UniProtKB/TrEMBL annotation:
One of its GO terms (biological process) is cardiolipin biosynthetic process. This is Cardiolipin synthase A. The active site is at 225, 227, 232, 405, 407, 412. The chain crosses the membrane at residues 6-30, 37-59. Catalyzes the reversible phosphatidyl group transfer from one phosphatidylglycerol molecule to another to form cardiolipin (CL) (diphosphatidylglycerol) and glycerol. It is a multi-pass membrane protein. It catalyses: 2 a 1,2-diacyl-sn-glycero-3-phospho-(1'-sn-glycerol) = a cardiolipin + glycerol. Residues 220-247, 400-427 form the PLD phosphodiesterase domain. Its EC number is 2.7.8.-. Pfam families: PLDc_2. One of its GO terms (cellular component) is plasma membrane. It is an enzyme of class 2 (transferase). GO terms for molecular function: cardiolipin synthase activity.
Amino acid sequence: MLTTSYTIISWLLVFSYWFLIVGITFRILIKRRSVPFAMTWLLIIYILPLVGIIAYLSLGELHLGKCRSERVRSMWPSMAIWLKNLHSIQHLCSTKNSDIAQPLFQLCENRQGISGITGNQLQLLTNSNVTLRTVVRDVQQACHNIEMVFYIWQPGGQADEVAEALIAAAQRGVRCRLLLDSAGSVEFFRTEWPGRMRRAGIDVVEALPVSLLRIFLRRMDLRQHRKVVLIDNYIAYTGSMNLVDPRFFKPHTKAGQWVDLMARMEGPIATTMGIIYSADWEMETGKRILPPTPDANLTLLKPHNDHTILVIASGPCFPDNMIHQAILTAVFSARKKIIITTPYLIPTDDLLHAICIAAHRGVDVSIIIPRYNDSFLVRWASRAFFSELLEAGVKIYQFEGGLLHSKSILIDGQLSLVGTVNLDMRSLWLNFEITIVIDHHEFGSKLARIHNHYIAQSCLVDARCWLQRAYWQRIIERLFYFFSPLL
């Protein structure tokens, strides 16, 4: 009798095991995913069944969790009305763009309902110390409201000066809201700063909390990766820089200090970015804080405020693959030159082919990446793409002046993209990201000078030498390339 019971239990376990394997397999195949992505997960599940199944259930699908998903669905009607009111102010919305920019602007207006906004002043900031001092100055002069969202807030140095300025602003009556990613800002939440800020009246929210108890309820590696500062619905910042002082952030890494690029904007674009912040805030807190629609008086700006800026947002509550499609559109629009800066180069197959096709068309394509970065896995995985890029004629520069963290694309000296998006699977398909697009030749010239400054501190990868690298290096590259759809 005992033997029979043991046999029945054994067969039930075997049946349950194979039923689970088959169920997960069908779940992966039914989802409309890229072939490499699906094959990677299937191999992991078949080679390491139990570990693979747990990993897929926690990391394999893009789900926010029931509460956040319901908030996302409920917020869109109000946002649609806000965007409709914005578009009713005709002289705020761009009606004419360059031939290079037109396809991208049309794509974004049709898919996300946000068009290019005119009447803005724009400044590029390349020095982290200057950026932090400028943020402190703007915070000190704020009168009504300050909203911030960052992936990383690392206490120390000038970051503490920003915190003190924010506390002082709240104490004099400015409404302050701070949204920080739970994983990226884990050290911040272990310090006294959150308590001090809350006592001063600042709303401090930990976005997408990390917890083992929620591992099957929400995808844990889905992160809030935006970097945004909004002040008085008129001043806005975004770009690659976290709220950190580079002198105090990861000081012992081989890569050196992080080198970032931020854009400071004045004008109605700030309220457009505010609608994205409102979506993030409501998703986390359930509270609605829609910004005011730009007033007609706001457009009575000085003549030099002539930049048209388009904001693109991505993430689970925004149109699928929006920034990925925008980058593809920009690359296909290029006729003469493309310059890309990214700290992490693990492009999708579509993006890799688009870049190579552009080079084959005769477009001068350059990619600037750091020689060393803070991710061992990403560093080796990115090298697996070098051969195909170099064979197509793409120039790859390895920056040696620190960890080049800026994320930018310049098309034909006219169309500029600056923001938080890395050219990797995580930024393009998963995280909450933001990018601004500028259709302006003068601004493109400024960005080109920054790129040339990066190139002057870089080493060009020689295609012939690359082909002669050791076989053990190629093996490691291919091994980590296998995991590239998951990085």
